């Protein structure tokens, strides 16, 4: 556990981002070039940070460098409050009830600070050294399908943002999955709960699948061109094209070695089985 001092130099922008608050402990995390500082005002808050803030990335003691974002959780009057810098993001009776809001803040901040990588709203898994991309916005059924692919032996990359470099390789984005499991509210889950590992290195794309979930639907897909797949990647990026030089070229390289399909799916178990068969056929 990394302990912060209350009387850290306030001029440094550092160690205690909130110098007038009592600090229990905290740590720094660097995620894809974004420097995050997590400050806990209660042991339950520290537990949330340790478990849910990019758990596979190393923690360091707060230094003198000013972070890109300071996040803290305070406790008082029967409520925990989540802050990003000095803005209140969410309140809840239990610290763990703030996890979904915390993950969304982390996503927004990290993606907003990407420099060498470009993000796409997509689920992604690794299978036999190659990546499957499932582009799609929230509520598209990406997370439930990713979770089932993990249960069937795939390695976890992401259920929300695929990060693509200038060579078209996809990097793991190691945050917890957010699953609905038939409920309106999301709950966090770890790859380990699906008996899966988290990816450790970038890999090339083998298959791009634009598949829409239909509760009473059946598996039905057709090949599409790489150009159509590229268009969908561009439609599902949070970046502004004019502010992201090189993004189109990065996505073109990601698509260049991939087979691309679009269609519909029903049950995630059957869809995952068929997708992994397709990945094997593409090897």
Architecture blueprint of SSEs:
Layout lengths: L24 E7 L2 E7 L2 H10 L16 E8 L2 E6 L2 E6 L6 H14 L5 E10 L2 E6 L6 H10 L3 E4 L2 E4 L5 E2 L5 E3 L7 E3 L15 E9 L6 E4 L2 H10 L11 H10 L2 E7 L2 H15 L1
Parallel strand pairs: 2-3, 7-13, 13-15
Antiparallel strand pairs: 1-2, 3-4, 4-5, 6-7, 6-8, 6-9, 9-10, 11-12, 14-15
A few lines on this structure:
With 283 residues, the chain is α+β, with helices and mostly antiparallel strands.
Describe the structure in your own words:
This is HPr kinase. It comes from Candidatus Sulfuritelmatomonas gaucii. The protein is α+β, with helices and mostly antiparallel strands. The protein has 2 domains: 10-112, no CATH class; 118-282, Phosphoenolpyruvate Carboxykinase, domain 3. 24% of the residues lie in helices and 30% in strands. The strands form 3 sheets. Strands 6, 7, 8, 9, 10, 13, 14 and 15 form an 8-stranded mixed β-sheet that branches. A hairpin with a 5-residue loop joins β9 (161-164) and β10. α3 crosses α6 and α4 (226-235) crosses α5 (247-256). The longest helix has 15 residues, at 268-282. It starts with 24 loop residues before the first strand and ends with a helix. Residues 1-15 have low confidence and may be disordered.
């Amino acid at each position: 556990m990394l302990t912060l001092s209350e009387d850290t130099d306030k001029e440094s922008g550092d160690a205690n981002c909130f110098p007038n608050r009592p600090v229990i402990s905290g740590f720094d995390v660097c995620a894809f070039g974004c420097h995050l500082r997590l400050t806990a005002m209660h042991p339950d808050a520290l537990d949330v940070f340790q478990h849910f803030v990019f758990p596979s990335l190393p923690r360091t003691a707060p230094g003198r460098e000013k972070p890109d974002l300071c996040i803290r959780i305070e406790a008082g009057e029967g409520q925990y409050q989540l802050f990003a810098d000095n803005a209140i993001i969410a309140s809840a009776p239990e610290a763990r009830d703030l996890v979904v809001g915390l993950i969304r803040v982390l996503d927004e901040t990290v993606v907003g600070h990407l420099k060498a990588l470009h993000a796409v709203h997509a689920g992604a898994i690794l299978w036999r050294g190659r990546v499957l991309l499932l582009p799609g916005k929230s509520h598209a059924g990406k997370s439930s399908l990713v979770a089932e692919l993990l249960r069937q032996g795939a390695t976890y990359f992401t259920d929300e943002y695929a990060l693509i470099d200038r060579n078209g390789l996809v990097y793991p984005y190691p945050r917890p999955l957010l699953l609905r499991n038939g409920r309106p509210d999301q709950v966090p889950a770890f790859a380990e709960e699906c008996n899966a590992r988290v990816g450790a290195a970038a890999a090339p794309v083998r298959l791009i699948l634009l598949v829409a979930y239909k509760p009473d639907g059946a598996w039905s897909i057709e090949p599409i061109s790489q150009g159509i797949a590229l268009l969908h990647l561009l439609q599902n990026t949070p970046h502004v094209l004019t502010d992201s030089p090189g993004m189109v070229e990065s996505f073109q390289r990601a698509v260049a070695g991939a087979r691309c399909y679009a269609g519909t799916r029903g049950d995630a178990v059957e869809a995952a089985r068929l997708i992994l068969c397709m990945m094997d056929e593409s090897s």
